[in-house]
Each structure stands twice: as structure tokens, then as C-alpha cells.
Amino acid sequence: MIRKEKIEELKTYIEELKAMKCTKNKTPKKGFLTIEYYQCTLNNGHTIVREKLVKGEKDGSAVIILPITKEGEVILSVEPRVFTKETVDVGLPAGYIEGNECAVDAARRELLEETGYAVKEENMRYLGSFYQDQGCSGALNEYFIAFDCKPYGCQKLDKDEYIKYFICTFNEMLELLQSGYIKGLNSAFVIEKAKEYVYERQRDRRI
How is residue 201 annotated by DSSP? Predict the structure, then answer.
């Protein structure tokens, strides 16, 4: 069962990052998200119209990381998600692939920026990939387990980015998933995919 003090710590982060009020701007500004419109001709001769969601002038491909410390604990991110019911998300560190980065470099960078924890490339395990939303995007999410993560420095967050990192045991993370603290599909999917791999490592007493 998850430790009482860890639940209290998590609730403190959630309360701190809740959105108390959101006001819609009367004059929309061009921002991170753009919609592009396409006419696409199919091999059968028919033409279909589709909208493509572009994120920061890129396709929005991203990485998701399940970080495990040298002590065998996991690192979660707690951050505002103002359009959800809770307005705060608990999940795995994640972020967009920048420029010509490969996925593993992006994963290591995002982990360091969001949590201040570093991981060696040889301790990264690639688990797979999935499309975020094939109906309106070509964004591909690639996901990893990062073993033997160590504190390296302070978080390096972007402007308007507020993230608390939360450390708990692997089983406590599973309890947070089952009890509804972790609701994001990306995080839930990666956790489920990673379970057997982690259990195998635990059986071998390597974490």
C-alpha cells in the first residue's frame, strides 16, 4: 500500500499546481498549435479533405520516459493540465523531439530538464512507439525505461512551465494508476507496457 506521507506529498503538489481560473483571450494570438488544411487524392481516385495539427512548426513527435533511480524508485511529473477536470496531471516525464535530435537524446534531455535527473545512454531501454492521433497528426511517440537515474542539477523549465517531480516506489506508482491519480493515456500505456520488463529485472535483482 502506498505510504501515507507520499500521498500527502503528492496532494501538496497537486494543490499547488491547480488552475483556479482560466480566461479566454478576446483576440486570439498565433501560438504553438497550428491547423493546416489538405486535399488528399486517394489511389481510388477520390479526394478527401483533412486537417493536420502542427505543434511548434513540427509534427509533434515526442518521447515518454519511465525513469528508475539507482535505488529502484520511479520519478513522476506533476504539472498543470488546465483543460482537464482536475487541472493537474500526474504522469511520466515527456516532451517533444527537437530539431535533428534522435529519440534517445530527446528522452535524456527531457528527463534532465523536467526533473534534474540524468541517465547514461547505455542505461536507456527502448520499448516501442505509437502514434498520438492518426486522424489529425503524424506525431509519433517513442517510449523508454531509464535505469540508474541520478540527481544531476536543477530543473531547467521553459517559461510558463511548472513541474514538480515526485519519487515513489514502482508498486506505489501502480497504485496511483489504479486509484486514478494517473489518468493520461500516454503514461498509463507506457507503464503497462513496461511492467513485465521491470518485473523481470526485479526478479534478476538488478534494480
Answer: H
Query: Hey, what's the cell of 98?
Result: 527537437
CA pair distance 141, 107, nearest whole angstrom = 11
Q: Are 87 and 165 in contact (CB under 8 A)?
A: no
Residue 60 · residue 33 · CB < 8 Å = no
How many Å apart are CA 201 and CA 74, to the nearest integer? 14
User: Average pLDDT of 3-29?
Assistant: 93
Question: What is the b/e burial string over 152-166, where b = at least 16 CB atoms within 10 angstroms of the residue's CB?
Answer: eeeeeeeeeeebbbb
Cα-based distances in Å from 173 to 59, 106, 152, 180, 187: 30, 24, 23, 11, 11
Burial of 146 (0-12, 13-18, 19+ CB in 10 A): buried
C-alpha to C-alpha distance for 207 and 205, rounded to whole angstroms: 6
pLDDT in tens, 89-121: 999 999 999 988 999 999 999 999 999 999 999
Predicted local confidence at residue 140, as pLDDT = 96
The pLDDT value given to residue 206: 56
